[in-house]
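Researcher: Here's the sequence for the chain we discussed earlier.
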Amino acid sequence: MNRKYRKTVIAGNWKMNHTATQTRAFAESLKAILPKSKWCEIVVCVPFVNLPAALKAFRDTRIAIGAQNVHYAPSGAFTGEISAEMLKDLGVRYVIVGHSERRQMFGETDEIINQKMHAALNAGLSPILCVGETLEQRELGVTMERITLQVKTALANIPADRIRRVVIAYEPIWAIGTGKTPTVEQANEVCEAIRTIIRKLYGARIARSVSIQYGGSMNEHNAEGLLAQPDIDGGLIGGASLDPDTFIAIVHAANQDHA
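Model: Thanks. This is the structure I predict for it:
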C-alpha cells in the first residue's frame, strides 16, 4: 500500500448470501468491533434486496454500501435489472463491475463491462472493476495480455477526470473460492502491471492515485502479507467477508502502518 497517494479499500462481496434480517445482525456485530482508525475505506457489497437494510443499518458509520452488479441502460424494458440511477438514489456509493462470475456464468463481455463502467460513473457511483486470468491463461503465460485487454476495454472512452473514482480489483479466477493464492510477489506483479497500464493511458499522476485491490481468496491469514506490497491497495473479499470477526481482522491488517 502507498497511502501517500491513494486510499486503501477493503470491500466485502457477499455474493448471493445473507438475508435482510441477517444483514441487520451482521451490521450490529460489525459496528461493535469497528476499529477507530480512518486509514481504511470499508465497503460492504450486498445483494440487491439487502441494500435498504444495509444502508439503514450502517448509516451511522463510515462504512460505504455497494451493489454487486448494475445494468448499463438508464431505464427501459429490462425485466429484473437495476440501473445505476436506482442505486445512486438509494444512497449506494460503490458497485462491482465485471466480476469473473458475471463474465463466466452470465456471459458478460469486455464490451458490456465497458458500458456498465460508463453507466456507473455517469450516475456518480464508484465502480470496482474486476479483472483476472484463468489457470489455463496463467499456465500459457498470457496473464499480462489478458489483463491488459480487460483493463483497456473496460476503460475505453472514460475521461481522465473520472478515473480517480475507479477502483480496480485483480482477481485471479483460479484463486477465487479455492483457498489458493499466488505468492504475494506474484499478486503485486500483476497489480503493478495494472498501474503501468493506467499510467500509459492517463499519465503517472492519475496512475499513482488509483486504488488497486487484490481479490483472490484474501483472508485473515494472508491479508497482512498481501497488503504490505507496494501496489496492493486493499482487497475485494468474498467468503471471508461474511463473518464480522474475520472481515474485521482483514480491516485491521489494512490499517497496519505500511508505506
